[in-house]
Amino acid sequence: MFLLVSCGLFFPYSGSPDSPRPKRVFLQSSTCSCKPQRAPLRHSVKQLQYKHTTRTFHNLQGQVESRDSGLWINSFDYTAIQHITPHIPEINDSIRTRCREDRPFCGYPWFLPVKFLSKKNWYLPASEVSPSSPLEFSLLSREETSWGTVKMTFSAKGPSHMSLYLMPHRGANLSTWSFGDGTPQFDLSGEYFVFYSHGLNAPTWTFWFEIQPPRDPDPSGPEGMISVAISSHYFFGEDQRTAQLEEILRRFPTWSFPSSWVSTYDMYRY
């Protein structure tokens, strides 16, 4: 059976009502990610996550260093995008992208801290997204403590779901923060992920952390002592869709099951 699937003699998906084997597709209208997962062939589902996103990167002086927009696609199953390309030719391996190790979570708006599950990503250039309620993010204060750390306090106001990414630079150490019991918990790559959600009419989200600056800054690494990024995820309402995302959705085959939303990604160096 493996050989039949590998050589293309057995197609794993079907849109037949009698024996459906759909390919699930998650589309985010702010960063397009494709996250396919493998299922038994009899009930095979093609899972892709698409996010239509606008990414903004700031330098140490707070100035915009670069900005782009696109559909970010990452694959979690063995067929990747090979069965999607015939239906949507612009989604192909020519737009394959790589992880930027100098940016928190590769520089993309991961909804959950699962980047280690997906090593193949694609980024299709697209128009800029303009949510009616854009994310508001700012550094409220920065102070040096008597015990040698730097305490930074931030505020964020945005949609009901946001992801915060913290990446201390080489030699720096995140010592404490305002989350949980105060002890930072990092993922396998040494980065930190905080997921935040709220109900209606929520107050501004305020948080802080303390970081120990590096004794000897790494000249080959990014400037400053930490990179902070935040993503907004628009799961419902008028900001959930874009015209370009809707156009892509209409072109998916019947054996796919697309799901989508809009996201943004903003990164800062400190």
TrEMBL record:
Pfam family, any one? ERMP1_C
> Key word Signal present in the record?
yes
**Which controlled-vocabulary keywords does the entry list?**
Signal
First and last residue of the signal peptide: 1-17
Q: Does the keyword Ribonucleoprotein apply?
A: no
Where does the record place the Endoplasmic reticulum metallopeptidase 1-like C-terminal domain?
A: 45-268
Q: Which InterPro entries match?
A: ERMP1-like_C (IPR053973)
Could you say which protein family the record assigns here?
Answer: Belongs to the peptidase M28 family.
Q: What is this protein called?
A: Endoplasmic reticulum metallopeptidase 1-like C-terminal domain-containing protein
Q: Which organism is it from?
A: Amphiprion ocellaris (Clown anemonefish)
Gene name, per UniProt, is ERMP1
